[in-house]
């Protein structure tokens, strides 16, 4: 709720210890952030899923730092009392550390995020460490990492066999050791996610990773059936069918304008000088000059 202090990373760790689940939802603009905050969301993720559900791309790869800064800033205006995490977009943290920190600075200073999220495991642990050392909380993200979808070969479930589950565990531990405050597990088998959640002292936040994570995150447009291309995924639950409500409302508007039932009497502004106005404006006809 507005006026309240946002959650912080110390309280998140305490919530894990006490067994209280963390809630996280994506948001991309002022109204989605405002509604998420009013609904009592613990954290908002300005995800680069922005590319899919708001900007109409087929992957997150085209999303730019400018896009993320712009959308994070509107989310921050809508949810002043909620902890906001912004995604570092594709290829903004694989060059030099200076470039990475410039991106982090923009998301924090211009976007007003409280933390940033990076996709990857052990291979980005040094980068995570440098960002954390600069005083910025980092949320890790392993399992299915959509920015690497072309390398992974599609949206595949991770951690199906022992070797893959061990790799995920090593990645999670590397992120924890690098100072990440929590780790997103995306499309990970419930068995692997449960073991990782037990092994870490920081919270795990699952999306399609089963029931034993310390928190859950889902995409705004998915749970509200709001024109999302992914709403039919197994791990998504529809909590409200906003898409149908909006579509029906718009069709009704089209119909009423076409049949001239909108605007009606109650929607118009009247003058008490009807006759004088009609006379002065010649009832919409050209004035004929008498000769
Ligand atoms: O971009 C996003 O929405 C995400 C979530 C799927 C975790 O990274």
Description:
By secondary structure, this protein is an alpha/beta fold. It folds into 2 domains: 215 residues, TIM Barrel (Alpha-Beta Barrel), CATH 3.20.20; 37 residues, no CATH class. It is 41% helix and 12% strand. It has 12 helices and 8 strands. An 8-stranded parallel beta barrel has the order 1-2-3-4-5-6-7-8, surrounded by 7 helices. Helix 2 links the parallel strand 1 and strand 2. The mean pLDDT is 95. The chain binds 3-methyl-2-oxobutanoic acid. 3-methyl-2-oxobutanoic acid binds next to strand 6.
Task: Give the tally of β-strands.
Answer: 8
Give the C-alpha Rg.
25 Å
CATH superfamily of the largest domain: Phosphoenolpyruvate-binding domains
Mean pLDDT: 95
Number of domains: 2
Structural class: alpha/beta
CATH class of the largest domain: Alpha Beta
Low-pLDDT windows of residues? none
Order of helices and strands: HEHEHHEHEHEHHEHEEHHH
Biggest sheet strand order reads: 1-2-3-4-5-6-7-8
In angstroms, what separates the terminal alpha carbons? 74 Å
- Major sheet description: 8 strands, parallel, barrel
How do the helices and strands line up, and which of them pair or pack?
Blueprint: H1 9-18, E1 22-26, H2 30-38, E2 43-46, H3 50-53, H4 65-78, E3 83-87, H5 97-110, E4 115-117, H6 125-133, E5 138-143, H7 149-152, H8 162-178, E6 182-186, H9 190-199, E7 204-207, E8 215-218, H10 220-223, H11 242-258, H12 274-280
Parallel strand pairs: 1-2, 1-8, 2-3, 3-4, 4-5, 5-6, 6-7, 7-8
The structure holds 3-methyl-2-oxobutanoic acid (KIV).
3-methyl-2-oxobutanoic acid binds next to strand 6.
